[in-house]
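Same chain as my last thread, 440 residues:
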Amino acid sequence: MKSYVILISVVAALGGLLFGFDTAVISGTINFIQPYFGLSEVGLGWTVSSLLFGCIAGVFIAGKAGDHYGRKKVLMLAALLFFISAVGSASAHSLYLFLIARILGGIAVGVASILSPMYIAELAPAKYRGTLVSLNQLAIVMGILVAFFSNYLLVGTGENNWRWMLLVMAAPAVLLFFSLFLVPESPRWLVARNRNDEALNVLIKTSGMEMAKSELNEIQETLKNQEESTFTDLLAPKIRPLLFTGIILAIFQQITGINTIMYYAPKIFANVGQSNDSALLQTILIGGTNLVFTLVAMVLIDRFGRKLLIVVGSTGMMLMLAGLSALYFTNHTSGVLVLVFILGYIAFFAASLGPALWVVAAELFPNRLRSKGMSIAIVSLWIACTIVTIVFPIMLEKLSGGITFLIFALICMANLAYVLKYVPETKGKTLEELEKEFAK
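reply #2:
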């Protein structure tokens, strides 16, 4: 049973790998596409963020289409869009075509950002759910690391190096598409479509015969006599606090500064005197740190819970960003300490808010509202990510690194205060148990 659940989770998490690769690969290309397309700092911000506009659309597509056609089929559509985006952006000779390809990739990222963790959460046994949903975050950071590493390996391939960097994504997109033929549909989606026998067969394979029947009954009970959900249902008095928690936590995940590092790390290192090759090499260290501490989170998240990890991680992120800010204010940015503080920040994020957000977002909402609740939370994440991505290069140019990173440190402090007061602990309970608890 464990092996089967792990197989399902790994296949679904390939969507996360493509999510991570597609969002991070642009970092290695910005120093080449900026002169190629003649982009100003503002133009660069908009070009980098073009993928994120697609993400926002993809989240809404994922919610409705995932409910209508099933999680599995819509993930297959995302795989096709990832492939088209890779080929299209790599072969673009005009900014217009480049932006269209990146937006299509963004739609795929938006779909994967909703459906991969949701699909895993709906198939995973309760006691392993945190770890298995975190597998999606592990795949995201592996995708980021692969992007950084392939960018470094391809930087010396000539004037078309950025094209090869973008084309690499086509391979895992093909792998995801064909791997999805090996996995079942979500049992909770099947029950919602009155396909109870199919749902029971899936639950027997994931939870065992003894647990499957009782779990099926719980799912049926939570969906019994419930009409087709609408977005308005999220504003019901007992659901609204959960929606606000999902939205605010998702926004904090982005405005604490993670993608300023992931998208603009080479630019940050170049600004403190590093060459392109050296800057790309240091992004590999960022990706490696991200991967290692995501593994740490996977070990800890079901043992110590989601909330404690976020509290400790937010504190560490705040201290690392404050230290980075201090280096800029004291003009000590030429040494290794810039890299140390950046790696420290990445470590704390990867061990806490990075994976915990996806786990909590998949656990907060009742079965019939999960896709819609997650859609609103994750679209809020992508809107916040888009804003930060657009304004960061301008902030770095106009405000200086010291003030910019100090602002992000203060945001981490606000996140810490919010989590301590409002975010519930969700570890160790079935989705149906959480639904009953939140309904009280």
